[in-house]
Design brief:
The complex is a heterodimer of chains A (about 1200) and B (about 325).
Chain A (H helix, E strand, L loop, with lengths): L4 E5 H11 L3 E4 L6 H12 L11 E4 L3 H13 L4 E5 L1 H16 L5 E6 L14 H5 L6 E4 L3 H18 L3 E6 L7 E5 L3 H7 L2 H9 L19 H6 L2 H22 L6 E5 L5 E5 L3 H14 L4 E6 L1 E3 L3 H7 L6 E6 L10 H13 L7 E7 L8 H12 L7 E3 L24 E8 L4 H15 L3 E7 L8 E9 L12 E6 L14 E10 L13 H9 L3 E5 L1 H7 L7 H12 L4 H16 L4 H17 L1 E3 L21 H11 L32 E5 L9 H5 L5 E6 L14 E2 L9 E6 L9 H5 L13 E5 L1 H17 L13 H4 L18 H11 L3 E5 L3 H7 L16 E3 L6 H25 L1 H4 L1 H8 L6 H18 L5 H9 L7 E7 H7 L1 H9 L4 E7 L2 E2 L5 E2 L23 H6 L5 E5 L5 H13 L4 E6 L12 H10 L6 E3 L1 H5 L5 E3 L8 H5 L3 H9 L1 H27 L16
Parallel strand pairs in A: 2-3, 2-4, 4-5, 5-7, 6-7, 10-11, 10-13, 13-14, 14-15, 16-19, 19-20, 20-21, 28-29, 28-30, 30-31, 31-35, 34-35
Antiparallel strand pairs in A: 1-8, 6-12, 8-17, 9-11, 16-18, 17-18, 21-22, 23-27, 24-26, 25-26, 32-33, 34-36, 36-37
Helix pairs in contact in A: 1-2, 1-6, 3-4, 6-10, 11-14, 12-13, 15-18, 15-19, 17-20, 18-19, 18-20, 19-20, 26-36, 28-32, 28-34, 30-31, 40-41
Chain B lengths: L4 E3 L2 E3 L3 E3 L8 H10 L4 E7 H16 L21 H15 L4 E6 L3 H14 L3 E5 L11 H18 L4 E5 L6 H10 L4 E4 L6 E4 L4 E4 L10 H10 L6 E4 L6 H10 L3 E4 L1 H6 L3 H15 L5 H4 L16 H10 L9
Parallel strand pairs in B: 3-12, 4-5, 5-6, 6-7, 7-8, 8-11, 11-12
Antiparallel strand pairs in B: 1-2, 9-10
Helix pairs in contact in B: 3-4, 4-5, 7-8, 8-10
The chains are: A alpha/beta (about 1200), B alpha/beta (about 325).
Chain lengths: ~1200, ~325
Amino acid sequence: MTNDIATLDGNEAVARIAYKVNEVIAIYPITPSSPMGEWADDWASRGQSNIWGTSPLVIEMQSEAGAAGAVHGSLQRGALTTTFTASQGLLLMIPNMFKIAGELTSTVFHIAARSIAAQALSIFADHSDVMAARSTGFGMLASASVQEAHDFALIAHAATLKSRIPFLHFFDGFRTSHEVSKIHLVPDEVIRAMIDDDLVMAHRNRGLDSDRPVLRGTAQNPDVYFQGRETVNPFYLATPDIVEEAMQQFGELTGRHYSLYEYHGAPDAERVVVMMASGAEAAQEAVDALNAQGEKVGVLKVRLYRPFDVDRYMAAFPATTKSIAVLDRTKEPGSTGEPLYLDTITALFEGWPHGAMPMVTGGRYGLSSKEFTPAMVKGVFDNMLADQPKNHFTVGIVDDVTHTSLDVDPEFDVESDSVVRALFYGLGSDGTVGANKNSIKIIGENTSNYAQGHFVYDSKKSGSMTVSHLRFGPQPIHAPYQITRANFIGCHQTIFLEKYDILKDAVKNGVFLLNSTAAPDKVWDTLPKSYQEHIINKNLSMYVIDAYKVARDSGMRNRINTIMQTCFFAISGVLPREEAIEEIKKSIKKTYGKKGEEIVKMNLVAVDNTIENLHEVTVPDAVTSSAGFLPPVAAGAPEFVQDVLGTMIGRRGDELPVSAMPIDGTFPTGTTQYEKRNLAQEIPVWDPDVCIQCGKCAMVCPHAVIRIKAYDEAVLDNAPETFKSTAARDRAWEGMQYTIQVAPEDCTACGICVDVCPAKNKQAAGLKAINMAPQPPIREQEAENWDFFVNDIPETPRNLIKVNSIRQQQVQQPLFEFSGACAGCGETPYLKLVTQLFGDRAIVANATGCSSIYGGNLPTTPWSHNDDGRGPAWSNSLFEDNAEFGLGMRVALDKQIEYATELVQRLSGEIGGTLAEAILNADQSDEAGIFEQRERIATLKERLSNIDSPEAKQLLTVADNLAKKNVWIIGGDGWSYDIGYGGLDHVLASGRNVNVLVMDTEVYSNTGGQSSKATPRAAIAKFAAGGKPSPKKDLGRMMMTYGNIYVAQVAMGGRDEQTLRAFLEAEAYDGPSIIIAYSHCIAHGINMKTAMQNQKAAVDTGQWLLYRFNPALAEQGKNPLSLDSRAPKKPVSEYLHMENRFRMLEMSRPEAASVMFEEAQGDVIKRWETYQYLAQRPYSPVENGDGAETDD
Amino acid sequence: MNIKSKYLGFDLRSPLVASASPLARELDNVKKMEDAGISAVVLNSLYEEEIRVEREALMHHLEYGTESYAEALSYFPEPEVFYAKTDAYLEHIGKCREAVDIPIIASLNGSTLGGWTDFAVKMQEAGASALELNIYSIPTDFDMPGADVEQMVLGIVRAVKSAVSIPVAVKLSPYYSNMAYTAKKLDESGADGLVLFNRFYQPDINLETLETEPNIILSTPQAARLPLRWIGILYGNVEASLAATSGIHYAEDAIKMLLAGADVTMMTSALLKFGIDHVKDVEANLVRWLEENEYESVEQLRGSMSQQKGTDASAFERAQYMRALKTYVVPNNDLA
């Protein structure tokens, strides 16, 4: 085995090259390109060198626009500079890209190509981002595989230096960026040979230098701009030759030969498909299979897309070509075709060298990582044989609206028998994916086999299913699509059995491995009927192991990764068993060695214990089970939920036709209630005798599964037998009954409710008023109780609820429920609180991030509505513009209110002066006032419907705006502190009545914990691998400087009453408000069950200050700042030691930790002193006004 | 006055040794101890269990939530090196040895047999002059006979002794059904010293939160009675050195222990309470007492009131306790 072999994913493969050939790397996280930046930052923090023996300087910017600006500046100074991005990030770079290209500047941007948000955001692969950048003047080079991505990264860097044309090097997001593959590494000496130092120095010499000053970036006028623009032409004309030469040189050095337009197939092919990136690999497989059947087909892989070389492109087609199908992985609505298709048409007209022009069709495939398989390629070839082939077709979906889709034969299979194909179904938490990545490395690096791993994740953050697709074979693997014919299927969790038909993908004589607590002789009867049929009909061998028991016995707690991995090697035969086990053990020592001998030992013990506990199941001859699959959604769900969302939940969303989808991305709210996920092994159970009815458990519940109602006793007449209730303790509810009910099938078992419960059982102090208990025995009973609670007990009337008391306020119905957030999420309790207090009148602008994902990722939506049909209306625009997006909603609302007011005034005679006056002068400062106004508006609308005038009709459509509505602008710290800060600042400065909620997790949680300006000093985060050396930005204090913005900093676990008060004040303030809410997060490395204790510690140590700055007080001549924290009573180190993000610094850089921890204490002291001064200083009233241009 | 003493084979300038405490975590304190006249330092204990838990916590947090959701396949960068407490502890041993001339005794609390021997070897390699095995566990297994508990302890001592060449002392709890037998067996198993006794942190109940809390109470001179008795009994019956710990605050406490037969007396609480320099007063008072009572040396004094050499052999036995009880007069207003 040579040492140039490695098993890695596309991102790492690219980053390795980019790191070696650059001096400056400006980064910003965006999926799926973030790992490239993370690798670069990691290597730089370890001092790894580029080919010139120095570490590149890696800098994180506040946005992709910022990264592009920094890249531009660095290039202008003459440093070799790169960046990594995707999707919206690339769009933000476009303005700078025009400049960089216009200035003929050598650089390569590496792009993990991803969909652009249109009717919806998607993190998955297509070329809509790179195609949006095709007019920038950047060269564009497409890689189709991990090996190519590694190789082309270098070729692009070599070519850009020589051509002076900047390059976009792109490859498919996830499909290539995250595919783990065995590749040949480019040795350093080859990199050195490919990068010409004379060109590097020439690049450097073009940099701005005060020793030889020039001016670049002038403003040009109509007289010369045009001519100036044409000066670059020779460079573009020369570039294809330069890239070709670079490819040739690379081929000579490595033996891997590429060309700009690479044809694969029959030399005398008549039908040729043209493609870019990973899809071409699938096409290659299909072409080989079809040619083996006697057909004459081929695929032309476009590597160099810009500058487009017509001559080389045309020359690459066989002269025999009669029909060309161009496949684009993007959509340009309204165009005459997608980009590669249009370029092909042009090229044919300009340069077809072989006589009769071939027929050309174009189509779209693979948007947002839609599967693209050899069967679909065959569908395209079949279409080309038709008398009138479909043009502008789609393939891979069923378009029953405009009928663009091609038929596909699902039975067409090209997978070679020499390739072992394995599927593994696991839970995110069980380590299945990590184990499989490890298995690929073992096989890739210890055998002559090639290996490929592709991993499919769920849309939910907690309790998500992962599917690992692994292939191993003697030849390089060209299969960028999921496995549907598996020799080996591992089911690592029995909960999947009742939900999914996993064995449908098993081939005859395959192997099925199940992790189950059932004994080998009992497990058969636990299988649903479909499983038994598959096993018998396909003659599958079946093995069973109780992996959780083995894990526990080996000291591994719930980690079954090593155990299931050992099972795979023990029974798959990919490697001889003994050899495989030896390699697993070696790998364990390598992987876990630095984390401690104890960890190594327990894994080694687990390997040995596995073999003893792995059993082959004797398969009976006959099916014994009659059990089917659980329905994907609860009975009684609305039709759309049943038919469309239910199909997605059942993992059959690919089958939905175009007509099933909403045309403009609009979905109903309140649909998570139908997706019963049953994740919890344990759920909280209420003990009414111990309960003090404080409401804290409901308040902190991240998934809104703990509900409270106070109600009339009479409704209990039809209560289920086990339904619990007790007398309400609050004096205001005297005579009423009180129930805390848990939603048993929606709970994620985080346990925060139990941790915060202040009531202790008098007989057993270990028990509280709410205690965790196993879910399965009480699932049915509690589901019935939940159903009764929700449907038969009326909501407590809002006018009976005193909202400033948590014990009463928590009775308000949450309109944000059962989200896909992590178990124990620190953000969602705040969102839920907003919806309880103001949800029936809220319009929400949600920045992209965790909250937009758990709040808006299909299939179901947690934002809900009440029985009146009112609830938050929600939308997500982008990451960077959320404040502006929300402001737009506000000004639209303001205008509509103004117009409605004008119309009421104008129509006052017809609608009745008294009513008009009452509407216009309504006091809506409390729930009762809002309720009355809604009643008046209902009367108004009734009257208007009888008035036949254009103005009455107009008023009818805007009258509802006269009832109070408010705008909530919500997002995380990545948005508010970094990428969206400029907009946030502007929006708050506008004086408009918007409410901003910043859920501050102090990192970019959604993209995996990258550092933001909210990250506190001494925390380890991605992009701050050595610990963040600078302090956290004080966003609240910055906003206070305006004087007219309500600013509060809260931590629910610190003081929940203060949190509630801040939310009420922020909404009541007739002007802009911002609440910065401490949100614990799994990215902090904490015990999520006791996370509220971390919040408390943050407050008690002064790490997080609680305060409210209310400009309304200033108007009364009072100091507007109320410091709600007490003086720090403990050293901040007590808090820092509670969180892995800080502890890791001590473990990895103890000396730096000691300095930074001390500095962190200094931050606390300085912050406290400053705020104390501000809160205590004498205050003179100042006329601030609200700053708005209008008098609203 | 000759106050030289011998412990674990080391010639010490005095019988005053610092026992394991947080003070010894800081190199500066160890230097101060030497400067103040302390004759040997037992470092704070390295707890295998704590290291294991720390490692597991690190692993848990590095892996928690990973490989579950496509956008966030991990949440932390992975540093190249993790320095565990072990590394820092071993480094500290080396630094202490370099910084002072007095013996540095590393203290180890293992949780597995392998852990005991592995860490013991590492401590020796790091430069420890001797080891103190801090056998700190409360047997709570209802099915484990007392003899098995003793066998486990003896097994640890034998294993460590066979793994290292430096002297090994054993710090024991008093909770053995026959301490004399246990001590004898430990002696036979090769223990070079017996440190009497380990004090367990006892849980307390917080009446406000109704939660049990660890409650660290510094020792008082009254705590010295238990080791005093057993040192008095063991003196002359075991070859191992005897170290007295618990309740030694003042010279008087140390003198009593020496009279009972201790080779050295160890202090923690007093140093924490009064500062490291307190040992100077203890030494001065020890010397003064010896002079006032016309002793020539500590060696002359040592064991002179042990069970073997004292005037009343039965004083160390149970009967004495019974007599004390009988003669004990309940003071007024102190029935609590």
